[in-house]
Design a protein that fits this description.
- By secondary structure, the chain is of the alpha/beta class.
- The protein has a single domain, classed as P-loop containing nucleotide triphosphate hydrolases (Rossmann fold, 3-Layer(aba) Sandwich).
- It is built from 7 helices and 10 strands.
- Helix 4 crosses helix 5.
- It is globular, with a radius of gyration of 17 Å.
- It binds adenosine-5'-diphosphate and magnesium ion (MG).
- The site of adenosine-5'-diphosphate (ADP) has 12 residues, from helix 1.
- Adenosine-5'-diphosphate binds next to helix 1.
């Protein structure tokens, strides 16, 4: 479970990027965070990942206060999370396989097991046939799927995706969110920051509306 208590974040005075955000996300929930540009979506996701520290407030993940844990434990904590950035951040001089294998190498999974899991994950995103290509030779949508495969290969409990369908055509965006949805059905908590209203309307179980850093609305469907 992810619990945020009265989170405030200020980068520069006098603006608040997050303003008294209190929120509880249960295991296995599928969440969209939406709102106009500058409303705090990215800040909220980065706060959960502990990439940025809030100015005030508390965050508990599975009961652990992530703002108080020691640095060494932050890495352990982050390994339970999969992240998809808007700009993918792939290694372009390494193969698709290598890119997806990284989170497993970091935790010392054996070579055979890495092969098995990377292949299985690439099958899920339907990219196993391009396993030995360099990302630069793939289409934009395919690169996005590599980023998603990398985020989920480690079976993370929590998946955070910031505008994962930005710049994709609607069909591909649909496909990507369907994929996240399948992953969430297998038990992961999925939180997607997006301003794509049509997509959200179609897929949103839970929708959180932000405006100027404040929660201005919540919807729960299904
Ligand atoms: P969104 O993802 O919804 O577009 P952000 O979380 O990126 O919103 O930004 C929320 C607010 O915080 C905006 O006003 C933005 O200009 C400001 N902001 C974000 N990152 C920084 C930063 N590193 N330094 C200063 N201001 C920032
Ligand atoms: Mg953003």
């Amino acid at each position: 479970m992810i619990e945020l208590f009265h989170i405030w974040k200020q980068y520069q005075k006098p603006y608040w990027a997050l303003s008294d955000v209190t929120l509880q996300i249960n295991d296995g929930d599928f969440y969209f965070i939406t709102g106009p540009s500058g409303s705090g979506k990215t800040t909220l996701l980065k706060t959960i990942f502990r990439e940025i520290l809030p100015t005030e407030g508390q965050i508990l993940i599975n009961g652990i206060n992530i703002l108080k844990v020691r640095d060494s434990r932050i890495y352990t904590l982050r390994r339970t999370m999969g992240l998809v950035f808007q700009d993918f951040r792939l290694m372009f001089h390494r193969t698709v396989f290598d890119n997806v294998a990284v989170p497993l190498q970091v935790i010392g999974v054996g070579r055979k097991e890495i092969r098995r899991r990377v292949f299985a994950t690439l099958q899920k995103v339907n990219l196993h046939q391009k396993m030995w290509e360099l990302p630069g030779r793939l289409s934009y949508g395919e690169q996005q799927r590599v980023a998603i495969a990398r985020a989920v290969v480690n079976n993370p409990e929590i998946i955070l995706a910031d505008e994962p369908t930005g710049n994709l055509d609607p069909e591909l965006a649909f496909e990507i969110i369907t994929l996240f949805k399948e992953i969430s059905k297998q038990g992961a908590t999925v939180i997607i920051g997006s301003h794509d209203r049509e997509l959200i309307r179609h897929f949103g179980d839970n929708i959180l509306f932000l405006q100027k850093g404040k929660i201005v609305g919540k919807e729960a469907h299904r």
